[in-house]
Amino acid sequence: MKNLILLLLGAASFAIPGSVSAQTDERIPIIFDTDFVMPPADDSLALMLALQSPEIEILGITTVAGNDSLERATSDVLRMLEIAGQPGIPVYRGADMPLVHEKSDFAVRSYGNWYSDEPPPPPPGGFATKQIENEAAVSFIVRTVLASPNKVTLVAIGPLTNIAQAIRAEPKFAENVKQLVIMGGAIALLPDGAGNITPNAEYNFWVDPEAAHVTLRSGIPIELSPLNVSRKSALTKYWYEKMVAVETPLTRLLKDTMGARFAAEPDKSWFMYDQIAMASLIDPSLVTTERLYVDVNIDHGISYGVSVGGRKIWPGAELAQEMNVQFDLDWTRFIEMFVARVQAPLQGERKRAAEE
Ligand code: BDR
Ligand code: CA
Q1: Which residues contact 185 (CB under 8 A, 6 or more apart)?
Q2: Backbone angles phi, psi at 205, to 5 degrees
């Protein structure tokens, strides 16, 4: 009887609120590349959305130094998979430092902890028993893409170090990636295009500008989700309370890690950077895009890590590639989908039931 109920729940997973056209055999296979930190960090909320979306099949998660150290990203993501009931998803350790960018006084004074070699703090509930895979992230990324030419989508929501290393490691890699969704950059040509770490540079691109430069010029079809579109979002106490109104392991984690913040600052709101990038793959109609040529500055001066977008090629950007650049969002549809999926019964349990 229990199995029957779980089976029915499994079938219902394709009709959860906010669902687009999900069928098991239509799932989008992705590699999720992240500078992960537990909530309230946006990477973890983006992963919750992916884990809870029947349209998405996560082939593996690769970690990278960004919001915090690589060790923190890795130990937090392992634990998150246990909490979300999907410990079978493999996790691969990636780059612990950007390609070129070195620790500086500015980095230490500003946001982020990518350069840190401090041991990671225990995640909620303690360190996971789940272990990382015995293969490096770059090897996994290249192997997986080459095994299924033009089938695998990469979702990259941290510095692009792992992706750039994969591009450099294997000449046939870029041409075999189906699509790359990137949270990164800020485009001055479009509204809301200021930076968030230097006046014009966005954090992920600024942490590893050389990696962003290699990746954007690689020829991979790119969907760019820059700060312009992030700034159309506002995670307020109202939406947080809606999310945690239902009791699940994920909403319990949100309460434990975000409740105090909303209690202390009830009028403050937060941008949903990585969640928008992830959602745009699930339902592309949530965002409005424009085709632009985008390149990244790698001169070690005042514009280090700044992304520049133009409608035509300009001198110096002859190798820039044209890509979809997101600049507007259907906020209401996005947040309603996000809330519905995060508070839905754990997809891991529904999947297991359907397989039994
Ligand atoms: C990006 O930088 C990180 O802090 C966030 O996780 C997001 O990916 C926003 O600039
Ligand atoms: Ca991120």
Answers
A1: 202, 204, 205, 212, 224, 226, 227, 294, 296, 307, 309
A2: -70, -35
Closest atom of ligand 1 relative to the 43 alpha carbon: 6
- Structure tokens belonging to residue 153: 């989508």
Q: Ligand 1 centroid to 14 CA: how many Å? A: 30
Q: Is residue 240 within 6 Å of ligand 1 at its C-beta?
A: no
Other CB atoms within 10 A of residue 72 CB: 25
The CA 133 to ligand 1 mean position distance, Å, reads 25
HEC states along 247-298?
Answer: CCHHHHHHHHHHHHHHHHCCCCCECCHHHHHHHHHHCHHHEEEEEEEEEECC
Give the CATH H-level superfamily of domain 24-355: Ribonucleoside hydrolase-like (3.90.245.10)
pTM (2 d.p.): 0.93
Q: How far is the CA of 19 from the centre of ligand 1 (A)?
A: 26
Cβ atoms of 285 and 230 within 8 Å: the answer is no
12 CA distance to ligand 1 middle (Å): 33
CA 265 to CA 98: how far, in whole Å? 34
- Our answer on whether the CB atom of 96 is closer than 6 Å to any ligand 1 atom is no
Tens digits of residue pLDDT in 56-81: 999 999 999 999 999 999 999 999 99
Nearest CA to ligand 1 atom 10: 203
Distance, in Å, from the CA atom of 99 to the CA atom of 65, rounded to the nearest integer, reads: 11
Q: Is 157 in the pocket of ligand 1 (CB under 6 A)?
A: yes
Q: What is the pLDDT of residues 253-292, one digit of tens each?
A: 999 999 999 999 999 999 999 999 999 999 999 999 999 9
User: 307-310 and 287-296: which strand pairing?
Assistant: antiparallel
